[in-house]
Amino acid sequence: MAPDDTTGLISLDKARILVVDDEAVITEILSDFLGMEGWELESATSGPAALEKLESTSFDLMISDLKMPLMSGLELMEKVLSKDEGVIVIIMTAFGTVETAIEAMKKGAFDYILKPFKMEEVVQIVRRAIDMKRLADENIRLKSTLSLYRLFEDLDVTISLNEVLDRVLDFAMRQVDADELSIYLQSPESGELELKRQLRAEGFSADASIDLERVSSETESGSFLISHGAEIQEFIKSNDNLPDALLSLPLIYQSKRVGVLNVLGYEGKRFTEGQRKLLSILSGRTAMSIINSQLVEELRDTVRKIILSLASALEAMDRYTAGHSDRVTHYALLIGQVLELGELDQEILQQAALMHDIGKIGCHANLNKKDELTAKEYEIFKEHPTHGKNILEPLTFLHPVIPGVHLHHERWDGKGYPVGLSGNEIPLMARILAVADSYDAMTSNRAYRKALAHKVAMEELKRCAGTQFDPAIVAAFREAIENHRKEALRRKDSIPP
Ligand SMILES: [Fe+2]
To answer: Are residues 93 and 191 in the same domain?
Structure first.
């Protein structure tokens, strides 16, 4: 191709044309006349010679004779288009073979020229062809830009690293029709590139081993690597099944390489300058999304640690309910599985369960005494969900867990506390926690009473479904605990609880 430096599109003046005819006089005439129009011309006197030229050079347009001794123009056209369907082919033919020329057009030729030809007619056909190619390229470019824009919008709201990498690879695969793609990220510890994600085209099985050291040193400074044909051997370790095209793009964020995107093509594929530019833009945005998702992951990790610290502080204070938060979390997650909650909702549920009683820290009363609480102490105890909410409110990143912490003592019939919500007004997370919390309270020893048996506790949940608890959650818990017990039996594990 001969793309314009700024737009990536071919211009009418810079098109590169290959003329193929076994009669040297024809190639000479065409080269001279078309060359005068400002186009770059090369010629070949046979199909195989033309293919050899195409190995090392890209052309926008090929004018080929139909009848040639070594390879017919039709065969040559098919081979050329199978490698690069963007090449425009114009067939030349004598009057007697017009039928074959029409056949060639059905198979992808743009037009045909009848011999003997008038040069003005040839120039006109070539101009029309290049103009059409420019418009087609522009159309493709607009479509690519639109897809890229949509991908960027997706990446803005994608926080999981693996999801970011999958989306980027999927996009690159569709845009450049690659056979194999991989993303390597720089390990923060060793600084080495490590394979993070790989994608192969459907039905594609070849496995080229990239010379990572070479690719790494070529892209370290921020420059890209593009290699076609025989020179590709330098960058591939295996000798058999060599790819024909390799494009390696550094993923740069704030002038620092965070990884490399590798794109491989087989069976004569070549990557164009337009594709390289498109993937370069993609690489820059990918690097930013990778850094963002890593920061989010670090923050999440910190949140997990803070939650575990708060939960253990609570356990240390409330010695009669040791292990309660962990067990409530376990039951809540089992219910979440039956309800098929998403990954993120399960994580929020887990955090809320671990901290559901965090507000007890703010209760100024001895809630660990041996006897049952007095009426006054019970009133103080009932303040713990609100204390929990107040403790968490200044921590923005913990806001998603507040509904669970604040409302886990609400009742389905509206007689709960602290707000008195009823039915579906109570957030799902809080309805789940209410069931998990009550089941564990019933099946655990308390200072003032012995633990109830599993069956008795389940009966109690059933009895209170529709008054204290959401019946759907009680049913989900029953299903969850049955599944879990069956699974534990299958694994000959201990039966919980
Ligand atoms: Fe509670």
So the answer is: no
List the domain range (segments joined by +) for residue 260.
158-295
Contact 69, 88 (CB under 8 A): no
| pTM of the complete model | 0.59
What spacing in Å lies between the alpha carbon of 364 and ligand 1's midpoint? 15
**CATH number of domain containing 411:** 1.10.3210.10
pLDDT tens, residue by residue, 382-402: 999 999 999 999 988 889 999
CA of 178 to the centre of ligand 1 (A): 56
Distance 405 CA to ligand 1 centre (A): 8
**Distance between Cα 481 and ligand 1 center (Å):** 21
Confidence of residue 8 (pLDDT cuts 50, 70, 90): very low
* Residues 128 and 178 grouped into a single domain: no
CA of 445 to the centre of ligand 1 (A): 16
Tell me, in angstroms, the distance from the centre of ligand 1 to residue 438's CA. 9
Question: 183: which strand partners?
Answer: 197, 261
Closest by CA position to 384, among listed 407, 410, 411, 363: 363
- Our count of domains for the chain comes to 3
Per-position DSSP letters for 262-280, written without gaps between them: EEEE-TT----HHHHHHHH
Confidence of residue 334 (pLDDT cuts 50, 70, 90): very high
- Return the bridge partners of 449, or none: 446
Å from CA of 219 to ligand 1 middle: 56
Distance 149 CA to ligand 1 centre (A): 47
> Does residue 339 belong to any structural domain of this protein?
yes
Tokens of 326: 């962990």
* Residue ranges with CB less than 5 Å from ion ligand 1: 357
